[in-house]
Amino acid sequence: MIKEAVIVGAGLGSRLRGTLENRPKGFLELNNEYIVEMSVKKLISHGIERIIIGTGHCSEWYERLAERYPAIDLIHNERYAETGSMGTLEVCATKVTGDILLLESDLLYDSIALHTLINDPHPNVVLGSGFTQSGDEVYIAVDDNQEVSIISKHLDEVGEPFAELVGISKLSYNTLMAMCAFAAKHHADVPKMEYEAAIVGAQKAGEHLFVRKVEYLTWREIDDANHLALALEHTLPRVLENELLRGVRREVLLNPGPATTTDSVKQAQVVADICPREEEFGNMMRWICDELTAFVGSTDEYETVLFAGSGTLADEVMISSCVPKDGKLLIINNGSYGARMATIAGVYNLNFGVFESSTYQPLDLNALTKVLDKGFYTHLAAVYHETTTGLMNPIPEIGRLCHDRGIVTIIDTVSAFAAIDIDMKRDHIDFMASTSNKNIQGMAGACFVFCNRKELEKLKNEPMRTYYMNL
Amino acid sequence: MIKEAVIVGAGLGSRLRGTLENRPKGFLELNNEYIVEMSVKKLISHGIERIIIGTGHCSEWYERLAERYPAIDLIHNERYAETGSMGTLEVCATKVTGDILLLESDLLYDSIALHTLINDPHPNVVLGSGFTQSGDEVYIAVDDNQEVSIISKHLDEVGEPFAELVGISKLSYNTLMAMCAFAAKHHADVPKMEYEAAIVGAQKAGEHLFVRKVEYLTWREIDDANHLALALEHTLPRVLENELLRGVRREVLLNPGPATTTDSVKQAQVVADICPREEEFGNMMRWICDELTAFVGSTDEYETVLFAGSGTLADEVMISSCVPKDGKLLIINNGSYGARMATIAGVYNLNFGVFESSTYQPLDLNALTKVLDKGFYTHLAAVYHETTTGLMNPIPEIGRLCHDRGIVTIIDTVSAFAAIDIDMKRDHIDFMASTSNKNIQGMAGACFVFCNRKELEKLKNEPMRTYYMNL
Description:
- Two copies of one chain form a homodimer.
- Chain A has 471 residues and is of the alpha/beta class.
- Chain A has 16 helices and 20 strands.
- In chain A, helix 3 links the parallel strand 4 and strand 5 (72-76).
- The first copy, chain A, is elongated, with a radius of gyration of 28 Å.
- Chain A starts with a strand and ends in a 13-residue tail after the last helix.
- At the A-B interface, helix 5, helix 9, helix 10, helix 12 and helix 13 of A face helix 5, helix 9, helix 10, helix 12 and helix 13 of B.
């Protein structure tokens, strides 16, 4: 999975000076939206989590943009006046940690281009299109393997052009490094190198950069007033329509859950198949668990366990796994899910009691304290937010009461996680459960239990009550 | 969900006589594929399960096509020579059971058109495009609600055209019936009515037919040699590229499971959100269960129960739910999943024994018979096909042995269901489990247990061993 993109944004739109008034090229407005901002949104909706933008001229424009997009990570090319786009890419490369998508900043394009590159099996792909006759074409010639051989604006240099360069590429980390090495060798003789030259240089140095040609791609680079007029009349309406057509009707669901999902969440399911026995799959599971944990605690002290199943399954995982044979569980019941936890505890014949409370009045903490003070209970289970009624239990206060008495806490946070500020350590939550389809607004089908590692460790010699649901 | 389509295919391609040589219009070949066959494939990949085609001239061409596509359901318009396309649609309508997509047979189109109609919130949608200048345009004018007011080839009749008619529409069952009623009223005065006239007639009679305009849709109706040349040069390459670009790289996974998935399976996840408390959702669950059951038995005697979870969960559902307190379970262990069932039985402290057998040699049925003849066991669990080794157990023979001795059978058919011919009644299988991601080649995440209703009924007063996994 590609998670990073680089946009080389240092250039000024000098040929658009009348329109751009001292802005970087990417800040041309089409339909009241910056062209680079459109690109940022497309990248985010295709799973890119970090967009490294190399700035130069008028970098304050990018700084203001970055305030609105946490995914943007700016780096300034101090020598932007003396370098070309490759100089900016070299600066950006210091921040890159994996494979990337590389984009020019002044491109208007149908986002199917991103899908095409991400999907392509080649690790390095330079995107080409049919010939646009735009008057500012950059041509690509290829070798017998359809890999880059020449990139040039001059047809006489190219000979037989295979495609026109769009300005979007997929690069493996190693190939990016090879491009930087090529550029470094030529800092003296080619101080204003463009990144296209480094692509050809890397290919010549033994890297393999495949050219993917999309004959009818809707796109346009906007360098002058004529391009701008054509973009507004022809390119933008086509791009907007294409992207609208691929979208899905958004329903308003008047139910407490599951949450509705965006197009990008739905489309994230449409990816190449992955083998669950591969390291790649294990890494993805690890990454998901760590990202989930990071919402609520440190991965040193807390661990997330994934299950295929519903929120009810996650609750049952906790009730059936977290109370040892000699444990005594108090369940707070002030709503459907509290009642369900009591039902589940009954199924397993746990030694448990129920603290009954109104389904619409605040919990009586004094009464609860008195029960806990009897010293009978070792574990407490409660629902943070009752999905059905909206009732919130004062979990941090309950957590403090339990912590002071050495009682382990088991919290259903199905509709609280990722909406209410939770810090498992601060709030003294030892185990908590949630699902993919509530506040994180993913598709239904996965659920997870967050565990205090120390408490989890204590359970390792307990007999299993189930096989699948055992933590 | 729209499950039916109607193609009015009775017409001869008279203006293409040189090319078509006495074939129906839909049998024009582009790149060695019939144009109507391309359409059939697109419909199937968009979830259409039944394609009703009304035939007329040279219907044998459609009969040969139908042999290759079980989804095609032909009906012959006996009066094709005296009626227009509406006459054929009236004949087709007798087979329609719900909402439909209606298509002309001689259309080449980007399948995004189908996605657009299916996604559109209006129940009736007539698809329009920008103006193609094809020389054979049919224009649509609309009223203030963007509903059909006029459809005509003559610009002077239309006044201000809103869009060009593509020839693909979405019609609710009721609106289709209103169109048929309109046509029936005019059988005498308009014997050769085209379906477009009935669309306008239905709108005038109080139905609401929204016009959805896709300005840049790639499509072409092919009526003459000029259209054909343009289709080959311009339309077909664009359609093929667009559809290729939306696809997903197909990986070959060298693992025993889960199965890889096709683009249409992946894309079936990209639909409008649906509320799990709605009747629509319940109906879909019911439909899935009945369709699954139909593979292996009658829905009167057998029932399928769905779970969110893996194949292991489905096995655990059976082991933990199907053996009553006083039951005695024999588990055949000749592979990983047999061993796992024994582990699960151990977790629940069932009264069980294990029949050990080689993981690569056939099971010794005589030895098994001797064990069963002791009369100790009431239930038997086995794996039909061991995913890890490919070993098959002789389930019909084992089923017969059990049936003769009144022993209930519990079979893991995770990688057998939908690949091996199973008839639960004939094979004496009482409970069996499988998943969405093996032979039916769906996405992972759902699993199901097939139950003999009579045996399921007997379990209803048994205490639950789990909450989520209880049958």
